[in-house]
Amino acid sequence: MFLVDLGRVLITIGMWVSACRPTSPSSELPTPPPPPPPAPGHAAIDAGGADSSDAAPDVTATAAPQMDPDGNDDGTEFAAALPRQGRFVKVGRHFASLQRICDLRAFGGKLYAGHATQPLMFSGATVTRFDPATGKFDLLFDWNRPGQPEKGGGAGQGFLRIRNIDGRLYVPDGDPPYLGLGMTRFGVEGYVFTSDATGRFAPARRPGYLPPALSKDGSAGSVVLPGALHVFDVIRFRGRLYASTGAVLKDWTRSNASPATLFASTDSGVWEAVATHPDPPMRGAWRFRYLVRFKDRLYAAVTDFDAQDGVEYVVFEPAPGSRELGKGRPVQVTDGGAALTLRWFTDRGKLYWLVNSGVFVTDDGDHWRRIPLPVSAGHPADMARVGDDVVLLTERALFRVDPSGLHQIAVVDESMSPAKARNLTCAAPLAVLGGTLFAGGQRRGELFKLEAAPEP
Fold first, then answer.
1. What's the confidence (pLDDT) of residue 170?
2. How far, in Å, CA of 305 to CA of 25, rounded?
3. To which H or E segment does residue 332 belong?
4. DSSP string of 143-176, one letter each residue
């Protein structure tokens, strides 16, 4: 491991602490202030009830076929029957399940879970696996780095997504230990951990619990993102892999800029920064969060820690056939702006947008309709297709979603989800496996499944 100049490390840590705190810009930043970022475009919100239109926009006969399917790379299984009235029952947990399950992914007939304690705040990051055939839980990857100094963040701080891309699992490291462990010469770096085709992950390397060796030719290992501070998501788009992060720039000591950044894979295996928000970068801290494909566009959710703009996501729409991402289009949908994206979900020509203030749906990617939620439902968490139905999980209930509105199927009690969300970086996930709908708990990292409720 190479040595980094002490002053550089101290400045980096100070910047990281500021970036992780949703406050106004520091009074110590140099003056005068930079020019404001470009005003975001506004997407329309149409009045109406829940998912009031089933018709997709007209597509002309000359329209080119989509290069990528809608959604993300999650290998979702749909075959399951949804009861009229159900209840969530506890399946169990692994001892390394920590506090929260942030994502669930069906893969190879088993269910993989990404865990966190308090994402981007406290150490804790593991991947566990549940086998419904045996009822057994296994620990697949431990990024807690036991025995390492905690000052500066001794371990990973949450696995927020698990993606199935081309038959392998990709797990972004939400917040790397010490801003990186010296696998590159940049001084700051983020990681994505990859499985092999069987779902096996390589362990952390000893001594020192370093990231696994670089992944090559489909092997289990790691991907290194030079300059990345947080890594939220990974997606395949136009033949390349992209990771959503915030990053520091080569001239960050002068600019204090930590823009939202997309990294892309290259043919050489080295990942490079290809897009930022703001563009060009400016002083402050932004992050690209969760990613989704829709109608040959890439949607990248945005978090602005310093509340300098109202941008809620950035849309990238390359020219047909192009692998170049191009310049993104910043978008604000809600009146107040800065809505915090919890998840995206696509289904049969619709894109659903789950944010801290509610749920929206669009047919064309530009015009949104709000799906009214009961006040008692709490924050939305996740959506899934279950057989012929689409369901919405919130903090306190599970609903079936159809054009007539929301129909409650089950109540979510305190053992599964806090009455008040305490960390909107990690929302309770859903997954379907073996004809059963599963949900991830937010108290003790427990796995739950939906069963038909007894008749009264």
1. 97
2. 9
3. strand 329-332
4. ---TTS--TTTSS-------EEETTEEEEE-SS-
Structure tokens at 61: 């006969």
CA distance linking residue 338 with residue 451, whole number of Å: 37
More confident of the two residues 230 and 456: 230
Residue identified by tokens 């109202």 is 310
Query: Mind spelling out the 3-state secondary structure of 6-69?
Result: HHHHHHHHHHHHHHCCCCCCCCCCCCCCCCCCCCCEECEEECCCCCCCCCCCCCCCCCCCCCCC
pTM of the model: 0.89
> What is the Cα–Cα distance from 361 to 338, expressed in whole angstroms?
18
Confidence grade of residue 7 (pLDDT, cut at 50, 70, 90): very low
Candidates 402, 339, 442; CA nearest to 45 is: 339
**Cβ–Cβ under 8 Å, residues 364 and 378:** no
CA-based nearest residue to 44, from 317, 331, 384, 318: 331
pLDDT 10s digits, 408-456:
999 998 888 876 666 789 999 999 999 999 999 999 999 999 999 987 6
Each residue's pLDDT tens digit, 127-148:
999 999 999 999 999 999 998 9
pLDDT of residue 40: 77
Sequence-separated (6 or more) residues with CB below 8 Å from residue 342:
290, 354, 355, 356, 379, 380, 381, 382, 424, 427
210/208 Cα distance (integer angstroms): 6
Tokens of residue 249, six digits: 């720039």
The whole-angstrom separation of Cα 284 and Cα 305 is: 8
